[in-house]
Design brief:
10 helices, Alpha-Beta Plaits, 2 domains, 4-stranded antiparallel β-sheet, alpha+beta
Length: 374
């Protein structure tokens, strides 16, 4: 296998516009699925709605040990408002940097996994095997993986999970959990010159925002992930400057750490937002694997010569599909490990280092070989 193949495959994946919304991952999923099928994998597709397609590809399998899951998402975020200096879908290279929307987050990771899977496709019979899960609609709430988690027969089993999100090929032992919600406040409309005749919904929202800013989680600081966070990210309300607004809505993004009781946390938040209608549209627990876990230690060893340092326990603040997949693959140790640059995710002129894409293939091959020999 030529390591250049992973770079070429990254470019091929970049050519598909899978910006979410609307996503429309179907064509990209079909291309990836066809390649995996040609390489000897049994491939299934799943759509939670039209053109929102995920791929599940399996090879090998034996009694006594569940397969290794390699997973990544096919969708990307919007281009943003700033002008790109490179074509975001052409896969242009400049020195060691490959540019395009989704290079780091996370089509390079998918390409690395697929090429590693290709090199083992004829060697998996009689081994624990491999399952690749390429998801639609990860951005904006991990909707695709949530749909897949409701289909345990389709998903089958897995004994460990590798998530190819951007980590610069550094093995991360977990990531924070996520709760996302909208809170809507109702008022009574009136003319702006006679506010006493109405009830201002924006004032209600503003008071709630002030309470949220002072909110205390009351949980212990995690030794690796630190403390949970809360951010009010959107505020909407009013239809004209001369009207008392009768509706206002805020969007809240909460990141939790292991040990946070989401049910209790949501009950406290709803009490704080008592005069609002609360809609929770994402709720996923933190993902954490003890660094001393035997498999995690072997992953560290596989990464060490490439990183030229001994990995230590680190975690990511962002969310991944692993939180949903672990509802099916219960108890599976999980590493977040991909060639992309986390700082490049969602940025204008997003890029991934070409050398890291090539290195990721060797890392994924090492992880597959270790799992399937054991």
């Amino acid at each position: 296998m030529s390591t250049q193949d992973a770079v070429s495959l990254t470019k091929d994946l970049l050519h598909f516009d899978t910006i979410n919304p609307p996503g429309l991952e179907r064509d990209c999923a079909q291309m990836a699925g066809k390649l995996l099928e040609d390489w000897g994998y049994s491939v299934s597709f799943s759509e939670f709605e039209k053109d929102r397609t995920s791929v599940i590809a399996k090879a090998g399998g034996k009694a006594g040990k569940d397969p290794l899951c390699l997973t990544g998402h096919l969708d990307v975020v919007s281009l943003g408002t700033r002008k790109w200096s490179k074509d975001p879908f052409a896969g242009e290279a400049d020195g060691d940097k490959l540019y395009g929307r989704g290079t780091s987050d996370m089509k390079a990771g998918i390409a690395g996994m697929m090429m590693a899977a290709k090199s083992f496709s004829k060697k998996l019979n009689g081994t624990a095997g491999v399952v690749l899960v390429l998801t639609a609609a990860e951005e904006n709430g991990c909707v695709g993986s949530r749909h897949l988690a409701a289909l345990p027969k389709l998903m089958g089993k897995a004994g460990a999970i590798v998530v190819g999100e951007p980590t610069s090929n550094y093995p991360m032992v977990g990531h924070k959990g996520s709760i996302k919600l909208h809170a809507s406040f109702k008022g009574v409309s009136a003319h702006g010159s006679m506010p006493q005749l109405g009830v201002n919904a924006i004032y209600k929202a503003a008071k709630a925002i002030a309470r949220l800013e002072e909110f205390q989680f009351g949980v212990q600081e995690h030794p690796v992930m630190g403390l949970p966070t809360l951010n009010v990210g959107t505020v909407e309300g009013g239809s004209g400057v001369n009207l008392v607004p009768d509706l206002a809505r805020i969007g809240v993004d909460i990141r939790t750490v292991p040990g946070t009781d989401h049910r209790d946390l949501l009950a406290r938040l709803k009490k704080l937002l008592a005069d609002a209608e609360v809609e929770v549209f994402a709720d996923s627990e933190a993902v954490w694997t003890e660094p001393e876990n035997a498999w995690m230690q072997r992953v560290f060893e596989i990464c060490r010569p490439i990183l030229k340092e001994s990995p230590e326990a680190r975690a990511m603040p962002y969310m991944t599909d692993a939180a949903n997949l672990r509802k099916v693959y219960a108890g599976a140790p999980t590493v977040i490990l991909g060639p992309g640059e986390a700082a490049m995710a969602h940025q204008t002129d997003e890029y991934c280092h070409i050398e890291r894409i090539r290195q990721s293939v060797a890392i994924y091959e090492g992880v597959i070989d270790d799992w399937c020999r054991g």
